[in-house]
Amino acid sequence: MQAENFRRYLRKTRKDKKLTLRQIEVYSGVSNSYLSQVESGKRGIPSPDILEKLAPILKVSYEELMREAGYLHKESTLPDISKINQAWTIDTNTMKPVYVLGSIGAGKPMYAEENIEGAEWVPSSELNGGEYFYLRVKGNSMKGRIQDGDLVLVRCQEHVENGEIAVVMVNKDDATLKRFYQKENGLIVLRPDNPEYEPIITSGEGVRIIGKVIHVKFDPHKK
Length: 223
Known about the structure:
Layout: H1 2-16, H2 21-28, H3 32-40, H4 48-58, H5 62-69, E1 95-101, E2 116-123, E3 132-136, E4 151-156, E5 165-170, E6 175-182, E7 188-191, E8 200-202, E9 207-217
Parallel strand pairs: 1-3
Antiparallel strand pairs: 1-2, 3-4, 4-9, 5-6, 5-9, 6-7, 7-8
């Protein structure tokens, strides 16, 4: 019921503001196909960080969106922390949008719609050629430097140096985020930073490097 109510609220609010889904995507970086699925009931309630991006574009408070989505009770209060840049303050000559992927699976295109969660604006100076994407981290195997829910900026490349953090496809499964090591005997070791997790050791068959982690964008909703 909460998801259905939010779906109707989002659609009505958007139409009241005379905004198209494409306009919201351009201004907020949230995929228009994702929003279309939310409005049609094919997707559930967006995460708080997505709501934070939508609030200034829809011209409502972050608190209101959080209430309508069910994250806040009616009696709860929350300061309006909508800090996302308005579209007219973004210089597209110096800032570029980078897709945020919720997952990467084998056997389907990396930028398939079901993978794309939205987009983030990144200074062009940080994108030194090549192709980039953000990946939302799931799990705690890299806990220490990288936490569950953080975003990592990844540069697409097929090779990394030993000890660098990479997004790696193993045995045709979903991608994993680990430190990459290639041994002299040909074995590949994918080592987590969290000592509670075991490393993945493989002969290298079926291993494919997707890209190298450039930096981490910490989840602002975690303490």
